[in-house]
Specification:
Elements (H helix, E strand, L loop, with lengths): L1 E4 L13 E2 L2 E2 L3 E4 L4 H12 L4 E5 L13 E5 L5 H7 L5 E4 L8 H19 L2 E3 L26 H18 L4 E6 L2 E3 L8 H10 L3 E4 L5 E2 L1 E3 H12 L8 E3 L6 E2 H12 L5 E4 L1 H8 L3 H4 L6 H4 L7 H6 L8 H13 L2
Parallel strand pairs: 1-6, 4-5, 4-7, 5-6, 7-8, 8-9, 9-14, 10-13, 11-16
Antiparallel strand pairs: 2-3, 12-15
Helix pairs in contact: 1-6, 3-4, 5-7, 5-12, 7-12
């Protein structure tokens, strides 16, 4: 059952069952719920029967992303008042908001300040799943959680500044911060140019491209596993205030992954490579491609995270093998 709230709290459908005293409350709010990770988190919480509010910029069509008892609200994290309304009454906020690479330095600082402020007001758990851009080029392998945050590019520096602000609020007792770090993910509703492009190319019999070097080991994680691990960490006493690497089932090379996708799609692998010089040329015409230059080292060299800390704390957690995850992802792309 889905409910929709329009800006200002005006219901676009039935009010949710947890409307109390005229104030709509929710156990969890997922910001950026129409994206790959946000939608997966919403589905996991809703399928468990939990109260969850999915905050999106454009509610139209979002109901197809979710199952279960989900309240969909229109909200823009750029707008502090809109964000506060979306998060009213919640005790757990999942920050899955993202913007195109070319707008990171322009848009994300204000968005992150707004989200931190609303988390402070609610004294909420703020769950901030992220990447490893802040490390810069890896200095040791596998990459542990205590790797130096030595990024010099704008995206890596921004990631570090944001985490530092969130950790400071955690240490002062204003919020409870949960900080998973994930490798690149793929799966249903992950439609970015790289992974969406790979799966669509395999189904259409076209050439799929991998950036950097096809033969370097690279951690990847199925989107459902990333979401399950993120939710699990948010519910685990003592997991807050520290970093957790969640690496997936084990590294594969780009060549191995693309071959697996094409074979599962029933076709002969057609594989191409985006080298740095080519990406720079394309970047003259496509700003988001130009922004890949900062993180291309992750595809030119080994990208392997140390997941021993997560495995020791959650020994029963099982990552989906790539073979099965690829089949499920192809099934989704066949119908979307």
């Amino acid at each position: 059952m889905l409910h929709c709230l329009l800006p200002g709290g005006r219901p676009g459908g039935r009010l949710p069952a947890w409307n109390e005293g005229g104030i709509v409350v929710a156990g969890s709010v997922v910001l950026g719920a129409s994206g790959g990770l946000g939608a997966a988190i919403v589905r996991i919480l809703a399928e468990r029967g939990e109260e969850v509010r999915a905050a999106v910029r454009r509610p139209a069509g979002c109901s197809d992303l979710f199952n279960g008892n989900v309240e969909i609200v229109q909200s823009d994290a750029d707008d502090a008042a809109s964000l506060e309304e979306a998060c009213r009454g919640t005790t757990r906020i999942f920050h899955c908001v993202n913007v195109p690479y070319s707008r990171w330095t322009e848009a994300l600082p204000g968005i992150n300040r707004n989200i931190l402020e609303v988390a402070r007001r609610n004294r909420a758990t703020l769950v901030f799943p992220g990447n490893v851009y802040g490390y810069g080029p890896f200095q040791s392998l596998p990459v542990r959680e205590d790797h130096p945050r030595a990024a010099t590019g704008p995206k890596g520096r921004l990631r570090n500044e944001t985490e530092e602000a969130f950790l400071k609020a955690h240490e002062s007792g204003d919020i409870r911060l949960v900080l998973p770090r994930l490798p690149d993910f793929y799966g249903p509703n992950v439609t970015n140019p790289l992974f969406g492009g790979i799966f669509r190319a395999a189904l259409d019999g076209k050439k799929a491209y991998w950036p950097g070097n096809l033969d370097q080991p690279h951690d990847l994680i199925f989107i459902t596993d990333a979401a399950q691990a993120t939710v699990l960490l948010s519910e685990t006493p003592g997991a807050e205030g520290q970093t957790w690497h969640v690496p997936g089932p084990g590294p594969v090379t780009g060549r191995e992954f693309l071959t697996l996708v094409f074979q599962a799609a029933g076709g002969r692998p057609r594989i191409g490579v985006w080298k740095r010089n080519l990406l720079r040329i394309i970047g003259f015409f496509q700003p988001d491609v130009r922004e890949l230059d900062e993180i291309l080292h992750q595809f030119e060299r080994p990208y392997v995270l140390d997941g021993s800390k997560f495995a020791a704390r959650f020994p029963d957690f099982r990552f989906t093998p790539h073979e099965r995850a690829v089949r499920e992802t192809l099934d989704w792309f066949r119908t979307h």
